[in-house]
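Quick one - first record:
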Amino acid sequence: MAQKRVALVTGAGTGIGKAAALALLKDGYHVALVGRRGELLEKTAADSGAEDRAMVLPADITKPENVRAIFAKVKDAWGRLDVLFNNAGMGLPAVPMEELTVEQWKSVVDINLNAMFWCTQEAIKIMKAQAPKGGRIINNGSISAHAPRPMSVAYTATKHAVTGLTKCVSLDGRKHDIACGQIDIGNAATEMTERMKAGVPQADGSTMVEPRMDVRHVAAAVVYMASLPLDANVEFMTIMATKMPFIGRG
């Protein structure tokens, strides 16, 4: 009997997280669906048709105690964890950085960086201790891990920080057979990028409608990264709408 493959996806109720979770379930994984809104996670589970291979775990993962609880539930139910897709994240409306409130700044740091770190810690604990040991952590960076959009300081700063987290986990995880990679996504067609159809601010002060790509291409890339043996790793992958203004941005 083939060994069960277990994945956990954060932000699995919408957008990239939902698409990735559905693709992993279609590939035969048992997938823990994590997010704030239980009804959206239930919809992801129902849409998958995967029945007991989909576990719905509503949680606010900015709180470390909640993160510990959801990873404990996965370990108790399925005995191991092979893949963590650290996907949950948020941005803010485009305003000058000096006008950002303390609360706004902290809210982005909490989900984009702190929650990702809490989840990474718990995944490593399970992956180090299980047999066979090891696993893979995939972090959702962003094109903003490379270059900012105008008035996006909180999102951009946290996505740059994700790159540092990815490199540290990749280095420190080696001796435990834990591989860590990052997927940097540009203009996947999700609710978050819906505004691009009406035009978004550019570095030269203009507003421009930006091309988007089907989110299923991102999901396929995540499944590919997850499918590699642990002696191979996609350290960084950039997947983007071909004609988006990233190369040459600014």
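second record:
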Amino acid sequence: MNADRTLADYRATHFLWNVEDRVATLTLNRPERKNPLTFESYAELRDLFRALTYAGDVRAVVITGAGGNFCSGGDVHEIIGPLTRMAMPELLAFTRMTGDVVKAMSACPQPIVAAIDGVCAGAGAMLALAADLRYATESARVAFLFTRVGLSAADMGACTLLPRVIGQGRASELLFSGRSMSAAEGSAWGFHNRICAPDELLAEATAFARTIAEGPTFGHAMTKRLLHQEWAMGLDEAIEAEAEAQAICMATGDFRRAYDAFAARQTPRFEGN
């Protein structure tokens, strides 16, 4: 990971941003509307996740929403209404920008933990899906509801990412119907990594993110990269990619420091007469 930029002092315009102990917390903060996205917030999310590639002071990211909801998707008045009046070049520029958010989340080296409560719909569901892990409450409701507004469910990478997480059949049902996936379903199907009490959700997600931040930075970045890349590889190609990645990791200071720490903990053994 390049480390020539710091983001602890970044001042977000369209959401909240805080960095503590190398864990960044990104909070979608329009609780009165269930934290919908706007053209501007999409663009800022894209640019911030791209910048994380060069941030040496952030090792993990938690993304959440304020006021008991995660994100209701694109703002009906500030996005969907204007989209109905746009020509095709403008529409394509917008849909490419939303996809760029997911690409930037996938490409940034820091593992991302989504902390999901309440409504998590449309583009909000895609933000959760694009995270590397998902913690949720019992009241979390995840819906890929694009078909309910007359669109294809193939949006922002949904038809690639969702089947990988929950399987083709389950993904097909959710994408065609646009119905909400309950927290129980999400947990049973592997979408959610953990179900938390509402007042413990952010703390538990942050605690896990902190364990990541305390681990091997380069090694975690390499793990994330190969988790994404190996879907397009055969077994032989994947094994070779992992062999190369592991050899590179072995040349890092993290590997040597881990060995030295392990060796220092061992009790010397002496042969008796």
